[in-house]
Amino acid sequence: MTHQYLLIGYVVGPFSLDGTLKILSKTDFAEQRYHPGNSLILFDPKKERSTTVHVVNFRASGSFDFVKFAEINSPEDAIKFKRFEVRAKKDYSLLSDDSYFFDDLIGCEVINEAGEALGIVGVVEQFPAHITLRIKREKQKDFFVPFIQVFIRNVDIKQKIIEINVIEGML
Description:
Layout: E1 5-14, E2 21-25, H1 30-33, E3 39-44, E4 49-61, E5 64-69, H2 75-79, E6 85-89, E7 109-111, E8 117-126, E9 131-136, E10 143-146, E11 152-156, E12 161-164
Parallel strand pairs: 7-12
Antiparallel strand pairs: 1-2, 1-6, 2-5, 3-4, 3-6, 4-5, 7-8, 8-9, 9-10, 11-12
């Protein structure tokens, strides 16, 4: 489910008597994602089941989004979705030809300037300073690469290859 959908938040629990959900936001585009009428997926990672819901209204406050879905109308209904992931279907039509979703980087092979394989992108981490790639390696510790121009030489999403500039101490 991860490559077809984008994670946009985690349900913390119910927020009001009308079934509004409090969601820990993981998207930079909350206004677009929670536009009234949009369909989203509430996904239970433990049981791997999902429910399609439709946005009625939305507001944000700090790190949280407060979203009312048409299908959830009471705190009792809302509590059932605690710890669920909120996901949106990827829409590539919103991107320019040379753009991609950060989720698309997961599974890409990471190589150095000489073309030597260093590992595979396991996770894309979002830190306050910048996006960082966690590179998984066989029988070695993971290493991190800040996703900034100084370190990222080339990204080829079609070939699933990311070329990086390796500096001393990175590996």
